Amino acid sequence: MAIAQMAKVMIVSHRTQVSELLEALQAEGICQILNADDAVVSRDFPELGGAVQRPKDIETLLNRLQKSIAFLDGFSEVKKGLAAALAPRTVVDEQVYDEVVCDRDVLRIIDESERLESSIEATKTEIENLQTRLETLAPWSDLKTPVEDITELWQTICLAGLIPAQQFDRVQAGIEELGAAVQQIGSANNKYACLIVCLKENIDETQKLLRSAEFESASFEPMTGTVADLMSEHTQKLDDATQQLQTLQDNAAQLSKNLLKLQILHDHYDNLLNRDRTRDTAPATEHTVILEAWVKKHDYARLEKIVSRFEAASLTKIEPAKDENVPVEIENKNLVKPFEVVTRLYGMPQHFEVDPTIFLAPFFALFFALCLTDAGYGLVMVGLVALFIKKMQGDKKLMWMLGICSFITIGAGAVTGGWFGNAHEYLPQGFGTFRRAVLWFDPLEKPMNFFYLALALGYFQIMTGLAIAFGHNLKRKDYIAAVCDQLTWLVMLNSIVIFAAGKAGAIPPVVGGFFGKLALVPAGMIFLFSHREGGWSGRIGMGAYNLFSAIFYMGDVLSYLRLMALGMVTAGLAMAVNVIAGIAAEIPYGIGYVLMVLVLIGGHGFNLAISGLSAFVHTLRLQYVEFFPKFMTGGGTLFVPLSKQYKHIYIGKVEG
Q: Does this model's pTM top 0.85?
């Protein structure tokens, strides 16, 4: 339950076996291989730079597969909605996987998919063009003259176009003044389709008038015949194109039955691409490839067995460079492992730091529960989480963590009397007896108990953070940092708390006075030794600032009052929902009971959703802002071994 210990290794393989070796390493997923830029051997021997060749054939095929999958997915009848969101990948038997990978006919599916996609797009474009043309011709449907006859004559010019209705009277008057004529043919979208005939010598004045009226010129080239005939012809073409589109879409739907094959092929070549990139970016000579890598120490024996299967490969442990960035992986078991989600969201610790997961787990679960403090909501969450765990694929740590938090919520709600707010008042008396038997205090009746509880938990977690840092520094034999940076604060802060308790009469004043004087000793050490770099003037100045920062601890503790605030808000909203439901139930003719059920389900569902989200976010904030900085810097590099990744499928035993 700590940060995994890493070993640095070097694997040297002949080029003829390196691909097979990488495939074996990828199948095990235990080894992070460095490229030429990160490998230390490349610094010592610059001539060993990687080939950096792009496997263009595989990249091109993957690109085609991605496009074909996206296209056919739109026509597939596979599961959609919540089921697809929880389990998006298809479980595939290993034998089926091998058959698809070896089947060269699968590539024909890509060709057919691309042909269908291109044809469908072309047909859609044709349909849009025909629809646009029909919309353009519609205002001219009453025109009996063939459109090719609307042209320039010996002495006159005929213009066709649309005139806004509000401008028509003005244009007509202006046209007549110019000795021209205008004929309205039809209308569309508050515009008139008109023919304007004018003498050639008046064309400039006519066009100027039409431009001022926002005249839209219409062109019928290269069409011939009457508008009615043209519309009939285009309508027929539109029907044919629509039918053709339907046929193409039906063919695509039929082809989508092969979608799984394309998904299998995509994941296969994606893993192959990762192997090839690893090989091509590793340091190499003319005949060998050097794989400098990290492996967990407890996996080293497995790595030896893999490499030993290849005659032209060797494995050697090497010492990491002093300035080398060691990758980090955290390992926890049982109930603690799900809480790795919180640590990973924050960022990995440095390889020499402490894994915070085991320490944050009980705090996170308890704080989440106190933010809800409702046993009824906890029961609902347990049911939902159990459903999600059963239906979900992939990493379920988040769901398991929420499940643990939900169980703690049931307990926290029971001891604070929260059962869907004050629903106990509407239930049989026996339940009220049970509630009182397990009740510690009701936050709405005794809010100060909740106030003191939140402060006490906050203070305890902050002290825990300092104690973790103190113990870690002792383990690293950094005794000066342990004493000056943590022990001094532990002694001073606790002494101040005991002194305040003596002043408040909670403990004998003599004891409080003793600890008040004792607090001066660590305060002096913080003033003199908390900053240990530079000259004494700088040390004293920073020491004074560090001593003043003791007030910040008070702010950190007060931040935990959000536990009380969120817990009481959840209870208050739940009570409001119950009151509204009770009012709705008074509506006569049976309608009231229906409304009451709707209000209860909708109201409590909304309260659970928004309160659960607030509980998660604010509990997360307390860990990241108040707890982690006390003992952890973070910023570690995640250990990412070469492994097989699957986006679309799972390889495993198919049920049934």
A: no
